[in-house]
Specification:
By secondary structure, the protein is mainly alpha-helical. The chain contains 27 helices and four strands.
Length: about 550
């Protein structure tokens, strides 16, 4: 509100108020001062609701007591990159984009105007003083804590916009100041468009890269929740995940990122114990006390490292201590106690959704893997769009983190899911693992065929992998060549790996050398950095 009021005041003219406006201005000033006094009182007496802010500021300013144990919220803030001092790269980026030079120029012009008002015209300009003061304060806060860039950068933009003001700053004639303002306005607009284009390109790269994968998996999790849970079911998870659940699925959640009171922070601390070395019984107790029906575990948070290179379980164990032998993330999949309290219902490469049982199973020997298999392949769920995909991704995670012995229980049941529910690439990856790592050509052939069928024979890379397998392992040259030809008719006719391996097979079997060279040339044009292209650069 203050920004809007002060921005409406002409910076180049003295503050002229009638009697009613003068009273309004004084009331506004008194209310602001009263608010500041209230906050100052809270800081001085160190209110429990603001204690974490004091601790974070002390830590960033180097005033924290090294012998004092930090609480969870202080550790959460001070170990994340967003809450650390602004990195030098930010200053370089803002300078390269023209923000810093424009801000400095705008500040200089405003200061010159203030000096002129005070020394020559003998009048004040409170709007300019307020904007400059607020800008300096916000920029200092941004330098102390990176997250406050949301305050510092917009205020820098406000000050930079003064360079394009149509008002007279340097006693220029009216026409001269008019044209100077237009030139500066055009320069600022061009700079904004240039920077905006770069930001759009960067956003597109994120959208088509790892960021888009995360968004797809989040959307998959939200859709599953919408289809398979009741509207009144309460969800238990971390802040970021629960935000997606609340906004996307419209389900009740146990905590919210806006938790600026001691009671809400205490609740958040209990919930975040799920990411530490906490026993399943402890987490189950917290969840049932809050009335939660489902627990969502984000895999990234289980493997997440802070700006201080601490994992979440290290932060939580440092703040609360640990009462479990292993992280709860791990116990969920390995512990018999966890499988009797939490039932895995949905899995993708980012999220696991567990149903929270009010009472534990009597059969503690029923593993989480068997629970998930039985749930996924039950008549009510086997035709869900992600059934086969979830089973395959879950088995792959188990294999990567805990070895083949635990994963094979799930892999043995993956192909029992309907064909249309599978992720072809996941099936193909397991086929490659069986072929190259375990030397099991029989099972590998079955998984290759399943991957090809699940892709509707439309994936060049999957057809190419199967073709090379038939050529190298099964010694079926004719079958391999047919698959390669089929791969080139898909929507990926310039897949460098397929083109190169096809060229190699033709060359090794005494086929048409001219065709082999043409295929290799196409592969080299498509991706000269491809390993196959580089390995056979002299041969072909």
């Amino acid at each position: 509100m203050l920004i809007g009021i002060t921005s409406a005041i002409d910076m180049t003219s003295p503050l002229k108020l009638n009697h009613k406006m003068s009273i309004l201005y004084r009331l506004m000033r008194v209310s602001v001062v009263a608010g500041l006094l209230v906050y100052l009182r809270n800081f001085v007496v160190c209110s429990s609701d603001t204690a974490h802010i004091i601790e974070v500021l002390k830590d960033n300013l180097g005033l924290a007591d090294p012998n004092k144990k930090q609480d969870f919220h202080t550790l959460l803030y001070t170990t994340q990159t967003e809450f650390m001092p602004l990195a030098l790269d930010w200053y370089k980026k803002l300078h390269a984009q023209g923000m810093v030079p424009c801000t400095m120029l705008g500040a200089v012009l405003a200061v010159i105007q203030l000096v002129q008002n005070l020394l020559i015209d003998h009048r004040s300009n409170t709007a300019a003083v307020f904007i400059l003061g607020q800008g300096v304060a916000c920029m200092i806060m941004a330098a102390v804590m990176m997250r406050f860039c949301v305050l510092g950068v917009p205020m820098a933009a406000v000050i930079a916009s003064l360079t394009a003001s149509r008002h007279r700053f340097l006693n220029l004639s009216h026409s001269a100041s008019y044209w100077v303002s237009w030139v500066l306005t055009a320069a600022v607009i061009v700079a904004v468009m240039y920077v905006g284009l770069d930001n759009a390109k960067l956003g597109w790269e994120v959208q088509s890269g790892s960021g888009s994968h995360q968004a797809v998996e989040t959307a998959s999790m939200v859709r599953w929740i919408q289809r398979n849970t009741h509207q009144n079911d309460i969800f238990f998870s971390d802040f970021v995940t629960l935000s997606a659940v609340k906004l996307g699925a419209r389900r009740p959640i146990v905590i919210h990122p806006q938790y600026e009171s001691a009671a809400l922070r205490e609740r958040a601390g209990r919930v975040y114990r799920m990411l530490g070395r906490t026993t399943p019984e402890t987490v189950h107790g917290f969840a049932t006390d809050l009335g939660a029906a489902y627990l969502v575990m984000c895999r990234r948070h289980c493997e997440w490292k802070t700006g201080a290179k601490l994992s979440f379980d290290q932060i939580i164990d440092k703040a609360f201590g640990s009462n479990g032998k292993q992280p709860f993330c791990t116990a969920l999949h390995l512990s018999p106690e966890a499988s009797s309290l939490f039932e895995l219902q949905m899995y993708n490469s980012e999220f696991s959704v567990f149903k929270i049982r009010n009472t534990p199973y009597n059969r503690a020997h029923r593993t989480q893997q068997r629970i998930f298999i039985d749930h996924s392949l039950s008549p009510a769920n086997r035709n869900d769009p992600g059934t086969g995909r979830g089973l395959c991704l879950y088995a792959t995670m188990l294999q990567e983190r805990y070895g083949d012995s635990l994963a094979n229980t799930v892999f043995d049941q993956v192909l029992s899911a309907p064909l249309g529910t599978h992720d072809p690439q996941c099936l193909n990856n397991h086929a490659i693992h069986l072929d190259e790592d375990l030397d099991m050509p029989g099972p590998a052939e079955k998984w290759y065929e399943a991957a090809v069928a699940a892709s509707n024979r439309k994936s060049a890379s999957i057809l190419g992998d199967y073709a090379y397998f038939r050529y190298l392992i099964l010694k079926d040259t004719d079958g391999a060549l047919e698959l390669y030809e089929e791969a080139l008719t898909t929507g990926e006719p310039d897949n460098a790996q397929v083109l190169c391996s096809y060229a190699v097979v033709i060359s090794n079997t005494g086929g048409n050398r001219v065709k082999s060279r043409k295929l290799y040339a196409r592969a080299s044009i498509a991706d000269s950095t491809n390993q196959c292209v580089r390995d056979f650069s002299k041969t072909l």
